[in-house]
Amino acid sequence: MNQLHEPSPPVAAAPQSEEGASSSSGGATPAGPWELLLFVAGQSPKSVMAYANLRKACDHYLPGRYNIELIDLTRAGQAALAKQYQVVAIPTLIRTQPDPQKRIIGSLSDLQRLVTDLELGSPLHTPPTPS
Amino acid sequence: MHVHSPDEKLTPHHLVKAPTGIKGFDEITFGGLPAGRPTLVCGAAGCGKSLFAAEFLVRGIREFGENGVLITFEETPIDIVTNVDSLGFDIPALVNDGKLALDHVVVDRQQMDENGEYDLEGLFVRLAHAVESVGAKRVVLDTIETLFSGFSNQAILRAELRRLFDWLKNRGLTTVITGERGDGALTRQGLEEYVSDCVVLLDHRVVGQISTRRMRVVKYRGSAHSTNEFPFLIDSEGMSVLPITGASMDYDVSDKRIPSGIPALDEMLDGGYYEGSCILLTGSSGTGKSTLAAHLAEKTCVEGKRCLYFSFEESPKQIVRNMRSVGRDLQPHVDSGRLQIASSRPTAFGLEMHLVKMHKAIEQFAPDVVVVDPISNLNTAATSDESTQMLLRLVDILRAKGITTFLISLSHSGSAQETSGENLSSMVDTWLLVRDVENYGERNRVLYVLKSRGMQHSNQLREFLITKDGVNLVPAYLGSEGVLTGSARLAQQQRETVAAIVESDLQRMNRLKLEQKKRALDAQIEVLRAEHLAAQEELERLGSDQRARDKAVETDAAAMNLSRNRQ
């Protein structure tokens, strides 16, 4: 649970070989690094769960090719970001890369759905077990 | 369980109120909204909820030094700025001065997936941030119900709203929450369940194709408030609510008289109308009612006072032109600003709106005399009952301000003369009646004072003449066939003049006769007196002869005696 208090740790990203790949091709894994913003407020169980589930799914489908920026709105200076990103519900996950932007709210407890909604990979791919 | 400790005491706690600065609203709520608590303002689309909320914030900043936060859920900040700009509310300036914080909350369900549990902490964070950034005391959430369409989990939403209102209350923020009116309920989502302190309902009703905005304080926990519906107006200065039935009866009365502009009428009224009283003039059409009002208006202006003339029949220019034809030149007074003629069509808006507009005009112009010409036309904007009520309120307001009110009512020919169409008789102090009298092939006007409270007034009919120099009143003649007016009166006058001449001739002759008789008698007296004198002299003469004779006899007798003795 400590990770919530740490500034968003950029997960070691693999060097990129391809550029400009689109994400929209259903199921195809995009080439660029994924940029994910996860808005949380303090260490609420929902926030902790959302972070863990997101990590799990990304590690499974995008090993080394994603960045999760964890934004704790209760921290000094972070509140303005809520307005900037139109965050109302907590937790809110925003995929800024690849296009198009996607937004998911909630504790992300349904991993299968998370994979589908984020278009992380083929639904046929064996999904990770929820934490 | 909460256990009372012995030293815990209940302390008296007074409800503090936050004035809104909205004209009239603070009066009907006796001070404004509950300070530090949420208030629900609900109503159908287009009823003015958002405007109420915006004015509450802007006036709070400008007039009461309380900074504010405006969270919008539907309109973008640009919309808001545009909407209230026409009211003279410069939102960008307030934002730049750090007095107002705006946040537009967008929740688009189409662009968002839900997965697992969530709460609305993000909204709390944004609200807290906005409040802290300007040190706000007032918050507006407009319209928070939009959230219900943005999230599928209603249970979470309701719990979060409850938490939000508690949060606002705990921070002591005076909050206005707007809500759309639902079917059979105050709001679609039942927000009134959460906001229990104060609920204000706005309404926009169309009756007979005329729309009127109304407001009612449905609930105000811990405070007295007027439960009536109040009309309100949105114009270039924002909202104004008219606390019509709030007018009380404890106004001052004046002993001063104000001239009616017609000396003969002043004489009938023992000196003129009372200042601050209500005068009703009824009459059928074409009886010169407006002319009488113009006299009052002109006289008021000549005396340096101010007159506000509401006309529901003629335009200002028409009135000025028509009154010039009877020698009342109102134009100089219009130019000098002492006289204001406000014309409007009775059907232009609802009755309440008329009242609000009149009230506003009275507030702004601060007149000494108000003329309403005619009140009967307002019936076309409402039922008779409603217009009576409205006039009662108007008279109450004017009375409380000590403004003399001159109401003109058109009575329809055929209806009883002693009733005004509006059943106003009980509320007027002086009631003048102008009536047509038809005789000898003419139609003439007579005026009389039907009643006049608190003054000795004439009980006589006067003939009401409209000349090119204005109105004049002449005593009417009472003949064997009733009241004589017009040429009948002139004929009567002539007859009386002739009769007077004849009369004086007769008298002169009588006098001459008597004088002659007196002179004759005097002559007789002279004659008698002379005879009397003559008789007197005769008598005296007879007396002196006798004495001489007696003396001679005596002398003769003595001589005889003497001679006899010598012999």
Question: Can you characterise this structure?
Answer:
The complex is a heterodimer of chains A (131) and B (567). Chain A is of the alpha+beta class. Chain A has helices at residues 45-61, 79-84, 111-118; strands at 34-40, 66-72, 92-97, 102-105. A 4-stranded mixed beta sheet of chain A has the order 2-1-3-4. In chain A, β1, α1 and β2 form a beta-alpha-beta unit. The longest helix of chain A has 17 residues, at 45-61. Chain A is globular, with a radius of gyration of 14 Å. Chain A starts with 33 loop residues before the first strand and ends in a 13-residue tail after the last helix. Chain B has 567 residues and is of the alpha/beta class. Chain B is built from 14 helices and 25 strands. Chain B has helices at 25-28, 49-64, 77-85, 91-96, 121-134, 146-150, 154-170, 263-268, 289-302, 316-324, 331-336, 351-365, 384-400, 486-566; strands spanning 17-18, 33-34, 38-43, 68-72, 100-104, 113-114, 138-142, 174-180, 198-207, 210-220, 229-235, 238-241, 257-258, 273-274, 278-283, 307-311, 339-343, 369-373, 404-410, 430-439, 442-452, 462-467, 470-475, 477-479, 482-484. Chain B has a 9-stranded mixed beta sheet, with helices on both faces. A 9-stranded mixed beta sheet of chain B has the order 17-16-18-19-15-20-21-22-23, with helices on both faces. In chain B, β24 and β25 form a beta hairpin. The model of chain B has no long low-confidence stretch (mean pLDDT 83). Classes of the chains: A alpha+beta (131), B alpha/beta (567). β4 (102-105) of chain A pairs parallel with β6 of chain B, so a sheet runs across the interface.
